[in-house]
Amino acid sequence: MKKRWTSRVLLVDEEERLLLLCGRDPRRPGARWWFTVGGGVEPDENYPEAAVREVREETELSLPVERLSPVVWTRQTTFSVDGQGFDQYEEYRLARVTADEARGMNILTDEARYGYRWWSTVDLATTTETVRPKKMALLLPDVLSTAGLERRPVHLGNFHEDTDPE
């Protein structure tokens, strides 16, 4: 099992919609899930630096570190994808983007090869699709409120997922 540390970003537009990317497992046809922007922390960077690098790589948006909120969620998860097992620690931060920034994003990167979508909290609450982390619809409104950023991060728990590579 490969250990992995990730920095994830809740990219939210002016309409309070969250950008999620779609993932698939090539070894499990039909396995599909939605996940936030972000990814692995490189040895020479900290979590916020990894977050802005991942945003730039996945959306071509250059976001300064100062635009990231403090950590709002943490999560530990184990999963496998394409035959590789992962034991992954995740930190989540909020970053709001303007309408111009959202329109200017190029989300045609490798990470979004299976699609992307801007999700409202209603969309998240009513979807039958797999979204990671689980219970995103219940968790997100608190983060979107000012109060959600003025308290300690919420640890979402330790999970074993069937598929959840990001």
From TrEMBL:
Matching entries from SUPFAM superfamilies are given as: Nudix
Q: Does the keyword NADP apply?
A: no
InterPro entries in alphabetical order: NUDIX_hydrolase-like_dom_sf (IPR015797), NUDIX_hydrolase_dom (IPR000086)
| Nudix hydrolase domain ranges (all copies) | 2-144
Name of one Pfam family that matches: NUDIX
Keywords, A to Z? Hydrolase, Magnesium
GO molecular function ontology, one term from the record: hydrolase activity
Is Thylakoid among the key words of this record?
no
Needed co-factor(s): Mg(2+)
The name this protein goes by in its record: NUDIX domain-containing protein
